[in-house]
Amino acid sequence: MSEQVQVLAGGPAAFLEGAYREALDLVWKAKLYIGEVGPHDAAELPVADRLAFSLETVRLTARLTHAMSWLFYQRALDAGEISRETAAQDAPELGAVSVCLAEPSIPMERLPSMLVGLLEKSERIYTRLARLDAQARSPRVTLPVAISSLAG
To answer: Which residues contact 61 (CB under 8 A, 6 or more apart)?
Structure first.
């Protein structure tokens, strides 16, 4: 476990802060869409597509919730609010959330364009963080090395 303790902490603060701001901005956009625009978009869809619309908004919410949870955890770890030992055992694992990485329930062109844009952005953020998380959990890769691999 001591190897894993080191790989979950110490990531460059600038990257984590940038990812946090990007994800938080998307959370606010998703909130506005789901609360304001989404119900109108859903009402205009054929009945058969409304269930898929609901499923995809749940997927959007799940991705953003898990990404923000992971980022909050990393920020708390960097601030010393969570010990490295605790992080080695309790840190959320993004790759384990299969609904977030599942294929869309219907072809994306059948969904409203605003929802599609939010889904695509949330998938990019989630995938990037899940890859970083998986690399950071490897006993031979540190979080700074994992972050540097994202640039390539």
So the answer is: 30, 34
